[in-house]
Specification:
Length: 672
Amino acid sequence: MAQSALGPLDSILDGMDKGKELAEGLRERLDEARDLLSKGKVSAAERRLTSLTSMYPDSADCWTLLAKARLGLNRTDSARQAFTTAMLVEPNRNEAPLLLFALLLELEHFEEAEVVIKSAITRSPKDVEAMTAYAKLRCHQKQFDEAVSISRAVLAIDPGYIQAWTTLGLSLFGCEDFEQAIGAFRTVSGRLPENASAHRQLGAALSCAGYFDEAADQLERSVKLDPHCQNGVLELVRHYGRVGDWQNARRVAQQGLEFLPDTVVIQQCLKAIEDRIDANSPDPTEDARLAMAWDELQEYGVLLQRQGRFDDSVRILQDSLRMEPNQGMGYYRLTEAKCFELNGLPLANHMLPVYQQDNLVPEGRIFLCFALGKTYDKEREYERAMRYFEEGNDLFYGLLRRSQKFFDAETHQSYIESIKQLYSRDLLDSLRGFGSKENAPIFIIGMIRSGTTLLDQIVSSHSHVRASGEQEFWKESGIQVLNKWFNLGPDRRDLSRLAEEYLFVLRTASGESPRITDKMPLNYEHAGLIHLAFPNARFLHIRRNPIDTCLSIYMTLFGSGPPWTYNRANIVAFYRGYLSFMEHWREAIPSDRLLEIDYEELVTKPEETSRQILGFCDLDWEDQCLRHEANPGFVKTPSRWQARQPMYGSSIDRWKRYEPWLGELLALKDLY
């Protein structure tokens, strides 16, 4: 009677029991397949899993494990099919999509990989594994700035996610921001002290940043932890070649061949090293160039300049020109190192025949124009120099316009007025108490080419100060907050969030220093928001003669950087906008938080002005701040040569040499 009364429920319970048995049976079979895979019995595992997918076609675990087995058999197409089936069976899980993404990334099928990973992030917007995978994709696509932003977004969600720290370090390394990459890799190696890859990545960044002794220690540790890693051996060989330590380079290559005896590239390295030792090569920078192409040599030459090794850079660049004489970039890089002679002849004698070639690509001609301009400026042939600067700027301006990169003065002025309108004195007064109490940041602001690099070198020479380079943080966050606050009104909660995120960026770049400089010159645009987030932080605004500043901009090749820098009228318009910004902040930001320094005073009265600057920042005087040229910090900006020289005033009133050919720049004559 009772059994009859249960009716359908009895059959449901019976079905549940059978389902439980099936699930338990599947788990046992999957564990057996995993055990086969772990023992290297891939074919047996693949056969068993193929059978299981027939028995359990709705099991994503079956399909995912089958895909892994097929990968082990190098059957990539069928592995992709299995991953795709797993995604269809359980569309809300991310395991199969992430594995498929990794496969597509390895195959360099970037477009397909992007579709897969974006779908995974859409399903789980805060899945740190999926977001980190997306950052890796951007690294592979050399979109390093975006990879940095994504990695930092992951770490804002989970500061302890070590894979995101690794990807952040690789992204920063790709941006050639070696100082910040070092910070990220230190975090990884600190948490994974037995991980060879972590020490190799840290060592590579240290080597590129010029911290050679510590780089050697980290790279040696990496090779000791994993002597079978070809990349680790080659990185250490390259490092010793970079510093000219050929005996250690040979030792590492020989040891590498003990563990990797058939590795051709290490054999080639060892032969090249022994040839140089036998020849008693006097050149300390004959890096394990080891099959470097001429353009790779140029990149290395620029790296040496950023480290302050200008003589070494010149030799590398000369090698590049011997390999490929019909180019412009190598000559331009030589002029950046203040080298104006080659093989006993003036550099112009070598450049002009290349410049006159009809088949020279536009980019090569642009580099030559700027190099010739610098050369004739050095020779005091100012009219001739300006003619080449004009041609180079006009050519680059044309390239930018064809690629739809424009600067519109009216649009820029509207942007300035919107910033000034939002960050009024009243708003700053009303929100000033809601930011961070931290006073670590020191913001060095001003127009580009006004002396910000020199000022940063002076301040960061102090024992309590570290330089973080030029951070993009406020440029990105400033626009976001501007749009949000205009639409929804100011929100004081944004201030603590921004302060926390920015401090994370600074600490990543420079460690736990009491004070840290950020020398992004154009941070002046967002000084109001920065002041609200850090009301105790100091701003150091350096200003220079307007025409000297703008002429220096016009004579500098910034690459694809600010589009306004290649047209004199646009430079003047942008400069006037800068003046408008600073006039507003002068009224809105308290004078004990904003110090204005004249470049001309700094270079003619260095000790008096430097003492004033350090006192304003609540820093005790230290004599080494007068020896800024000895600062070992990495200099990425076009001022890298000037930053390594003792203080000089020869750039003051430089514009007067070019007065007849300044054109629109003369409109700034009465501003200073």
